Amino acid sequence: MAQEKFDAIVVGAGPSGNACAFSLATRGLKVLQLERGEYPGSKNVQGAILYADALEGLVGDFREDAPLERHIIEQRIWMMDDRSFCGAHYRSEDFNEDRPNRYTIIRAQFDKWFSRRVVQAGALLLCETTVVELIRDADGKVIGVRTDRDGDPIYADVVVLAEGVSGLVGARAGLRAVPPPDTVALAVKEMHFLPRETIEARFNLQGDEGVVIEAAGTITKGMTGTGFLYTNKESISIGIGCLISDFADQGQTPYGLLESFKAHPSIKPLLAGSEVKEYAAHMIPEGGYKAIPQLFGDGWLIVGDAGQFVNAVHREGSNLAMTTGRLAAETIADLKSRHAPPTAANLASYKARLDDSFVMKDLKKYKNLPGTLHNKHLFTTYPQLLSKAAQTWFRVDGLDKKSKENAIVKSFFQTRRLKGLIGDVLGMARAWR
Amino acid sequence: MSVETMVRVEDKLFQNRYLVDAGRPHITVTPHTVPSQRLLSLTRICPAGCYSQTDSGQVEISTDGCVECGTCRVVAEPAGDITWNYPRGGFGVLFKFG
Question: What is the ipTM of this complex?
Fold first, then answer.
């Protein structure tokens, strides 16, 4: 292998690395993909929701054999206090379609499948191989990698870093910094198994229909974060995540937070009788547009979570990962076909492609939101006020409706004051725009 | 919080599969007399409970149950409280579901 030279080395076999390696291989390029896990997916964690569009652009027939769990027909968004939730639900028969738009998946299984497709397309995959460093020439251009398999260098025209949110290689090489604790969340998750009939009865589902719940409120104890519950065929994925800077400041244990969430009176019955088969934790990039590092240089590109490509508002990540992987591959293949060297100047067209796609457009739209969401009132005060307002409104107790309305309005002004309310509303509106 | 005190993270980790690289921990704590606040916070926020405080007050790590999330790296590596590496290829946590 030491003498062989590849068109591209892709570091990592998650969604971004697989999308990139797949696109390169189908274009006839000579690709080596390196994965440190025993199999692709063995180190990867996600909720997980798969957005079909990004994958469909790569593997048009993925529905034929990809391990999909349930197609999502109902989205529940819950604002929770300690005893209640106030929810917005959207369920539509339109989501029962020939080519559903969103699926729940189990990442370790999905990544394994995607990787099989990558190998079938012609890429060479080496698992159980950790990349330890990038190799540069005298001019600083990246020309290959060194792994822990043997000390020998492996050379390529381009190295694509698809190494995930905690990727070491890029940081060691000085291409990007270790992400600061206020730009990454830590999420913990459990897999709860139940008979599929039980899940379908509990969530009002038929066949492979699925429900997902996204939740915010006092469940994160004032920290910036969210909880989730996703239905799979025979299991429920449940998890909760918060900014690492908030965890560090408050000293909450992540598993304690998860237990409290599971014990919430609105969640507990949904999990009753289940058997837990795995506990996982992973970081999620939450810094948005402003946290994106330099994405290309002489002989290298960054894709996926390593580039902070997550839309925290819409809970989108794997689709951004796949799209960045595909755009990186298109850039590399285009240069190769024109016999243009992968210099920083030439690889800059990767950034141009990103800017032109929904990836950068969406992240740019919400560029000020991460800072705005770092407001503990959004996760404590408002959920409590909302719950109290709903209860005042729905409880029939002899009080006239006008007085109820006044009590609700007064509760908001007393708790947050006019200045606080206006600040929160304007801040949110500005960041959303 | 009453619920939290009942949680034993060891019971959760028991569900997971690992291939432990015996004698080659991928994370080490820098020797210290008094731990920094960052280091101390890891005894609470590590989701696998890998960090603990000794009777004499130092923070130590046992990486066997590590789920390789990288949280401790983000909090404590830049200031030099810990060194952080991936396990050797093939070793460490093996998620069945992820």
Answer: 0.95
